[in-house]
Write a structure and sequence with these properties.
The complex is a heterodimer of chains A (280) and B (472). Chain A has 280 residues and is α/β, with parallel strands linked by helices. Chain A has helices at residues 22-27, 68-74, 109-122, 142-147, 167-176, 190-203, 236-239, 250-257, 261-279; strands spanning 2-11, 14-20, 33-37, 45-53, 58-64, 81-82, 84-89, 100-106, 126-133, 151-156, 163-164, 183-187, 207-210, 226-229, 232-235, 242-244. Chain A has a 7-stranded antiparallel sheet with strand order 6-1-2-5-4-3-7. A 7-stranded mixed sheet of chain A has the order 11-10-9-8-12-13-16, sandwiched between helices. Chain A has a two-stranded antiparallel ribbon with strand order 14-15. Chain B is globular and about 75 Å long. The chains are: A alpha/beta (280), B alpha/beta (472).
């Protein structure tokens, strides 16, 4: 069992949890993920590692409440335990030799982009961290982002904070202003990564994306996380989760990601109803 | 005088119509009377040909003689000296090509039902024995086992009985490997696997779940920082193989590993499980492949309410699955399309509505008919495409059961560990790898094979590890 050391509500649908998992913290690197199960009936859910503390032996995850499992997870409090927590899984982000990088995050993906930006920034790389949110109230981790970047650019869909612009527009502004990037790293919703890659392809900027497909074991056994990269089948759990964004078949990834949408909606509703009954 | 009845006592089974709607065990096991009657068919041959057919060399005639006397616990003790998992092997071993294929009774008539007797004895012991295994005194040596499948559990058991301090590292949240994620409940109830695992814990074996060796920890760290003097790698099957035909990444295409893991490990078929599986009631499912895994996937699909087709490119005679599994599958209404090979998985696409949720889902399977030509390198007749034989079948789900390639995690994180061109770890006849004190066995070495072969490899390695550490 794995204890929840800290819980912090970042915005109405995004929560941070720091979990006691020394074996995972010992080896975790930016770009890697964990798989957890909330309870005995829980499904195995992959979540990217948002931060880790080797001395305290903790790993931080940040999740958006989207389905039954994240709903259940969000109902756990500090001091309570998670059934299973395994990792670190996947390959770490390659950050060597980069001089100037744009790290792009969208929605909850911004949290996942954070450790990558921090690692690059710590290594002396010039980091433009470009993050987008729907509105001002949904902005998370602003202070952490500031500390992990040379230049933090925030945009919102409605203009309630920063520029009213999508992350792709903000990135384009930088490129058009003459900034040269060695690499763009995009982490967030598949649709966002798709459009970032369309843009960077025009400018020939190498772009890495972090894929988060449906997964079960996460160790290279089930094959559920496969995607097409450069016409070849790749497995996000062992070959990824990061891939050359100019080669990923995003449309296929989006379709596969929606495979259980009906089940998830239904299951979340049921879980919500259960929690409501408990409250009564 | 032996019982000269030409046929085995038939195995009592759940009715096919009833069982194709539930996940309870299909074969129900012999009664005491049936077991004694069957045991009396054994001729107790002096040269014991059956034993040579057993990868772990269980002293078959000796245990059968005890069954014939009605002393079932004594029979169990004889088996237990050579096999760590008798209740498992009695159910899933391909006895017809191993021990039973060598049985003298089988020359003219049916062999003795050795597998059925092994199962009876193990079940009798599990239901009646009261004595717990006792943890032997420690010999002070620490051994790490990677993977808690049949190879790892066997190796762990053999070493623990000799006094080694054994820790088993398992990547998943539950111990048992393929016995829990791969083989379905109706063929091997999970309570039986749990019992075998608990038995090892009684012997002092530590089982650490949620540890992915190669990621959470490496073999070098286990040996240098954690004080393990020897390591056995039994990490099992790896990534599923696909055919590389169009449509394999459509929604509704599963690897057999994923499909079976959702059902067996995650219990997706049960209410209350949070793990989803595609609803299959009234749907059409094609399982591509002809091995035991294909039969398991097909029979699970049937139990979820689907019309199921096995699509296999050679003829029925070449099906690699056990005859019994094929027969059970047929009884349950699974349709065999042999000499058939898929060329395309067809997808649904609504040009009017790009947001139609069915877009990108499986709608059919395009196949060609095959005929058998000259034997190939494997000795089996090579399937050749029949000209102009293309046809389409409507399908909602396609499950690829084509085997696996070994997991790349351990080899990529262990310096000096040599692998062959198929990705399997190279070992000598004692199970020793190219690294000192690192042994391996099971599917990680051979690629997809059987439970009993993996157990045999675990056993061989345990013996070699014992000899190696005794010399140190």
């Amino acid at each position: 069992m794995y204890r929840i050391v800290k819980k912090r509500v970042l915005n109405p649908t995004v929560t941070l949890m720091e979990i006691e998992a020394p074996a995972v913290a010992r080896k975790a690197e930016p770009g890697q993920f964990i798989i957890l199960r909330v309870d005995e009936n829980g499904e195995r859910v992959p979540l990217t590692i948002a931060a880790y503390d080797r001395e305290k032996g903790t790993v931080t995850i940040i999740f958006q409440i989207v389905g039954a499992t994240t709903e259940k997870l969000n109902h756990k409090e500090e001091g309570e335990y998670l059934q299973d927590f395994v990792g670190p899984l996947g390959r770490a982000t390659e950050t060597e030799g980069l001089k100037r990088v744009a790290v792009i995050g969208g929605g909850v993906g911004t949290a996942i982009a954070y450790p990558v930006a921090k690692k690059l920034h710590d290594d002396g790389c010039h980091v433009d961290l470009i993050v987008g949110f729907r509105n001002k109230d949904l902005i998370i981790l602003k202070e952490e982002f500031e500390a992990a970047s040379t230049n933090l650019i925030i945009g919102t869909d409605d203009g309630s904070y920063g520029k009213k612009a999508l992350v792709t527009d903000l990135l384009k502004e930088q490129i058009d202003a003459g900034v040269h990037y060695d690499r763009v790293i995009a982490i967030g919703p598949v649709i966002m990564m798709k459009f970032v890659c369309q843009l960077t392809k025009e400018y020939n900027i190498p772009t890495v994306v972090s894929m988060n497909p449906i997964m079960i074991d996460g160790t290279g056994m089930c094959g559920g996380c496969r995607l097409t990269v450069g016409g070849e089948t790749k497995f996000a759990c062992v070959d990824g989760p990061e891939f050359d964004g100019h080669k990923v078949d995003f449309d296929e990834a989006m379709a596969r990601g929606a495979m259980y949408r009906d089940f998830e909606l239904h299951a979340r509703e049921e879980t919500c109803n259960l929690f409501k009954q408990e409250v009564k | 005088m032996a019982n000269m009845c030409p046929n085995k006592n038939p195995m009592p089974h759940q009715d096919p119509v009833v069982r194709s709607g539930n996940f309870q065990e299909v074969a129900l096991g012999y009664t005491k009377e049936q077991a004694i009657d069957e045991a009396q068919r054994c001729l107790n041959c002096k040269n014991m040909p059956c034993v040579s057919g057993c990868p772990v060399q269980i002293r078959i005639p000796e245990f059968i003689a005890k069954v014939a006397e009605g002393d079932f616990e004594a029979a169990y003790q004889i088996i237990a000296q050579d096999s760590a998992l008798p209740a498992v092997c009695g159910r899933v071993c391909p006895q017809e090509t191993q021990c039973e294929s060598k049985c003298v009774r089988g020359i003219k008539h049916e062999s003795v039902g050795i597998g059925r007797l092994e199962r009876f004895v193990a079940d009798w012991h599990n239901a009646n024995a009261t004595e717990k295994a006792v943890k032997p005194a420690s010999n002070g040596h620490k051994v790490a086992i990677i993977g808690s499948g049949p190879a790892g559990l066997t190796c762990a058991g053999d070493l623990a009985r000799k006094g080694y301090e054994v820790t088993v590292y398992e990547a998943l949240h539950l111990a048992g490997g393929v016995l829990v994620y791969g083989i379905p409940e109706f063929r091997l109830p999970k309570s039986i696997v749990q019992k075998e695992v608990d038995g090892l814990k009684d012997l002092g074996v530590k089982i650490e779940t949620n540890v992915v060796v190669g990621r959470s920890i490496t073999i070098d760290e286990l040996m240098e920082q954690f004080g393990f003097e020897a390591v056995f790698i039994g990490s099992g099957a790896g990534l599923p193989m696909f055919m590389h035909i169009p449509g394999e990444n459509l929604k509704g295409v599963y690897s057999a590993n994923e499909f079976l893991t959702r059902i067996n490990l995650m219990k997706a078929y049960k209410d209350g499980s949070d793990t989803p599986i595609m609803p299959l009631k009234g749907k059409k499912v094609a399982v591509v492949g002809g091995g035991n895994v294909a039969m398991d996937a097909a029979r699970c699909s049937r139990r979820l309410g689907a019309d199921v087709y096995i699509v296999y490119r050679r003829s029925e005679a070449e099906l690699p699955a056990r005859a019994e599994e094929v027969e059970h599958a047929k009884e349950e209404g699974i349709i065999f399309k042999t000499l058939t090979n898929p060329t395309d998985i067809l997808g649904y696409n609504n040009p009017e509505d790009k947001r139609d949720p069915k877009n990108g889902s499986v709608s059919g399977l395009k196949c060609v008919e095959m005929e058998l030509g000259e034997p190939d390198a494997s000795g089996r007749r090579r399937p050749i495409v029949k000209e102009g034989s293309e046809f389409e079948m409507e399908m909602d789900c396609v499950i690829m059961a084509l085997g696996t390639s070994p997991n790349p995690l351990i080899k990529s994180t262990t310096k000096g560990l040599e692998i062959n061109k198929r990705g399997g770890i190279i070992v000598n006849e004692e199970g020793l790898t190219s690294r000192e004190a690192v042994y391996a066995g099971g599917d990680a070495v051979t690629g997809a094979a059987t439970v009993i072969l993996a157990m045999g490899a675990g056993k061989t390695a345990a013996k070699a590890i014992d000899e190696y550490l005794a010399k140190k």
